[in-house]
Structures are given as structure tokens and as C-alpha cells.
Amino acid sequence: MNVVLVSSEVFPFSKTGGLADVAGALPKALAENGLKVSVFSPLYKSIDKTNLSLLLNLNVDFNAQLIKTNIYHTLKDRCDFYFIENEAYFNRDHLYGIGAIDYEDNALRFGFFSKAVLEILKALKINPDIIHSNDWQSALINVYLKLFYKDIFAKTKTVFTIHNLGYQGIFDKSYINNLGLPWDVFTLDGLEFYDKVNFLKGGIVFADTVNTVSKTYAKEIQTSENGFGLDGLLKKFSYKLSGIVNGIDIDVWDPKSDKFIDYNFNNPKDKIKNKSALQKLLGLPIKEVPVFGIVSRLAAQKGMDIFSSSAKELLESNANVQFIILGSGEKDIEEQIAQLSSRYKDKVSLNLKFDEPLAHKIYASSDFFVMPSKYEPCGLGQMIAYRYGTLPIVRETGGLKDTVKNYSNRSKNPTGFVFEKYDVKELTKTIKKAIELFNKKDELLKIAQYVMSLDYSWKNQAKEYIKLYKKIYG
Ligand code: ADP
User: What are the pocket residues of ligand 1 if the criterion is a CB atom closer than 6 Å to any ligand atom?
Assistant: First the structure.
């Protein structure tokens, strides 16, 4: 089976979040199962071209112009990676925008990306069985394919994965012209959404099958609470909607060989050395206190608003803890946590940046990993934390519900802490329970050992995707 995977970010070349992890690891797992896989992504400024080879120059007919583009290639993990270069659209400092502010021409940037992929496939005479697109940035592939490329790719079927329904790519309707789309797709049954054009909606309507990244999230997005205005549409298409939990790349996240951590380990007892090293690095007192790590976009979606209030409560009541936070995002949340870190210098380390090595250190050194998301399509942090014997503290939602089992007196094989209500008090109570467990060292170590043995690799999950591909390809 010949699969083309399209993603606006792909690890280790580009990354802002979980989509990059998936696009970097799923192809490898598919190739290990004998599939032929090609991956397409933009060539951003941050990607080093020197290790890629220039394969092709092409003029893509887009926005009433012929747009010059160069295609670079490399082979990695037995998969072909293609990078689409366009000076004006992709040679920028950020992938989508600066902080929470998107670039104004994102409709054109990613419309072009989607069109260019199909033009490159045509030029390279690649005739895929499956085109697997992801999120709004590559959603228009499904639309262009059905409208303009049906003859060339007559047998090709499309899979569209929603990694986060909260980001839909909604733009002024005038873009219909720029994107070269006929106005008859601008309807309630097509791309129209409250008089605007909605890329994600187009992806859902035009794809042969749609999936999201956990079974629970697949159900949640069909409700008005989590449907972001598309719940009706998703209910209508529920016959072609499914959920497949993501895996993680266990070679990238491996405490035994991780190059970013100070001490490799196989037993959670040995985490302590990493903890001391990280405390030293971040200027925190080197102490055996419970460390709560966060590696996340600092967004309300991620529960960072209730986290900052809960941390404040705990610190004001003099809790003997340390919070180590890595991430950036919404300004008000950044400020709330910054206030805590300046007031409680010995207990809060805030690192407002994207930093891959530091992320690894935090997963490896923390006792607990805090993810109190308001909603969470899948979440990777909890599974990465397991690899390093770090217990996640999560809210019962989406993929977190599907992957974390709550610790209580009665539960068998718990893997972390789960609370239900999106509420500061609930989170504080749960963190306190974690502190109690921290003081029962043997019990904590036993659970940490158990979570390290869990298999959240892509091995099984890739098989789920192959099943889905086969189902629609026949
Ligand atoms: P998202 O909704 O942001 O995609 P996920 O939990 O699915 O959330 O994936 C987040 C990924 O991004 C994980 O690999 C996490 O370690 C990484 N990540 C998030 N923020 C940062 C940061 N500031 N620095 C380094 N890695 C980060």
C-alpha cells in the first residue's frame, strides 16, 4: 500500500506540538509494517536544507499566478520526506504566527501547501492508494482532489485526521476566489461556516473517512459542549468518523538512551539524580520535594488557568513542592504564572520558551506531570511521562480519559491521578493526593515502575491506521 501523509509540521524538522510528533513517528511505524510512505511538509526557515537534496522545481498554479516552488527530499526511517519551499509563504520565523497571533495570509499559505502537494504527486507520477491529511492546514487536499484531480488520482482514497477541533482555519469568504474554488462549494453542506470559509469543515465533508486521536474525543466532538459549532456536521458524518489513540516514538523518548537527560536510567529509583541536576540547572534548591512538571502550550485549553490558581493556593498554604513549567502561550496565563515564579523563587521555575532538551529533562526529573486540560483530543505528555516513570495528573477528558487510570485505595494498576470536574479546588485536592503518595515512597516507586512498563508505542496504533486505510481502500 502506497500512503502519502501530509502535515504542516513534522518532527524532528519542525514542531509546535503533538501533530509534529505524530507525523514524525507514524510513517516510521507504517513503513515497518511494509507500507510505502511519503511525507509532505513545508520547508520552514528553521529547517536546515544542507541535509536535503533538491529534487524538483515546479510552478504551481495558485491564486491566479504561477507560484515557483522547489521540492527538497530526504530518506529517513525508510520513508520519503518531501519539503515544499516557497520563499514568500514559508521562509518565516514561525510556523503559523507570532505567539497567539496568526499570520494574516495563513489561508493562502496552507491553501498553496495543499494544492502544491497534489501538483508534486502528479509531477513525480506518484499514484497513492491513500492520502492522509491532518488538521485544517492540509484539509483542502480533500477538496481539491475531489474537485480537480479525480481523473489523475482515480483510485486514491482520503483519510483526514482531526488533531484538535478547536483550530479550524476559518477565513473571510473572499478567499474562495484566491483558493481557486468554485462558489458552489460555499454552502451549508460544503465549506461555508457562518458566512466564512472553514478549511477543517471542507476536510471533513470531502474526505472518504475522518478520524480523531482518541475514542472518547471522537464521541465528545459530536456534542455541543466540545463540537466547536461542528457537532451537527460530525454527527451527520458519524458513519465515517472513528477514533485512534496516538502513540509515541519510543526511540525519541527513552530514558535508557535519551541524550538530553543528565543520567540515563531504567529504574525510577534513579530519577533522583536527574531531579537534582535539573534543580541545579534552573536555580531551584536541590531538595527531595515532590516536583510537578509541565511541558505545554500555556493555554486555557490545557487547563493552565486552573493550574495557575491551584498552584497559587498551594503555595500560599506553604506546600513543600516545586513546580517546573516549560511553555508559552496566552499572555494572561503567562503573567499569572510569572507572578508566582517571582514571588516563590524557590518553588516555581517558569521557562517561557520552546525547548526540546529541557522538555526531556522535565519529563525525566519530575515526580508528577500536570495536564488538567479543559479538553484534550489525545495528549502525548501523559504517555511520554509514563516512559520516564512520572505519574500524570489529568482531567478526565478525551484521550486523557482513555489513557490514565486513577490512583485510589480501590483501583487496580493505577497509572496516575484523574479528576473529573474542571475546577481549581478539584485540581488542588488531586495535587494534594499526589503529595501524600510522594510520602509513601515504596508505593510511588511501584506505580512508577509499572507505568514505565506500559507500551504506548506506535506499534499497535499503526496497525489501527492500516486497518482504517484497508477499510476504505477495499
Ligand atoms: P498539543 O495540543 O500542544 O499538540 P500534545 O500533548 O498532543 O499537545 O503534544 C505536545 C507535544 O509538544 C509534546 O511532545 C510536548 O513535549 C511538546 N511541547 C509542548 N510545549 C513544549 C515546549 N515549550 N518545549 C518543548 N516541547 C514542547
Answer: 17-19, 21, 164, 295-297, 326-327, 354-356, 359, 378-381
Q: How far is the CA of 290 from the centre of ligand 1 (A)?
A: 22
Measured in Å, residue 303 CA sits from the centre of ligand 1 at: 14
Count the Cβ atoms, other than its own, within 10 Å of residue 386.
27
Per-domain boundaries in the chain? 2-247+459-473, 268-454
Measured in Å, residue 267 CA sits from the centre of ligand 1 at 25
> Does domain 268-454 fall into CATH 3.40.50.2000?
yes
Encode the chain (474 residues) as per-residue pLDDT tens digits: 999 999 999 999 999 999 999 999 999 999 999 999 999 999 999 999 999 999 999 999 999 999 999 999 999 999 999 999 999 999 999 999 987 789 999 999 999 999 999 999 999 999 999 999 999 999 999 999 999 999 999 999 999 999 999 999 999 999 999 999 999 999 999 999 999 999 999 999 999 999 999 999 999 999 999 999 999 999 999 999 999 999 999 999 999 999 999 999 999 999 999 999 999 999 999 999 999 999 999 999 999 999 999 999 999 999 999 999 999 999 999 999 999 999 999 999 999 999 999 999 999 999 999 999 999 999 999 999 999 999 999 999 999 999 999 999 778 999 999 999 999 999 999 999 999 999 999 999 999 999 999 999 999 999 999 999 999 997
CA of 164 to the centre of ligand 1 (A): 13
CA distances from 411 to 333, 404, 406 (A): 34, 12, 7
Which of 296, 370, 386 maximizes ligand 1 atoms within 8 Å of its Cβ, making it the mutation to test the pocket?
296
Q: How many Å lie between the centroid of ligand 1 and the Cα of residue 356? A: 9
The reported pTM is 0.97
- C-alpha to C-alpha distance for 435 and 444, rounded to whole angstroms: 10
Contact between 117 and 6 under an 8 Å Cβ cutoff? The reply is yes
Identical fold at 2-247+459-473 and 268-454?
Answer: yes
34-40-42 Cα angle (round to 5): 155
Candidate of 9, 16, 21, 245 to mutate for ligand 1, largest count of ligand atoms within 8 Å of Cβ: 21
Selected from 3.40.50.10420, 3.40.140.10, 3.40.50.2000, 1.10.1040.10, the CATH number assigned to the domain covering 2-247+459-473 reads 3.40.50.2000
Q: What span, in angstroms and rounded, lies between the C-alpha atoms of 238 and 223?
A: 12
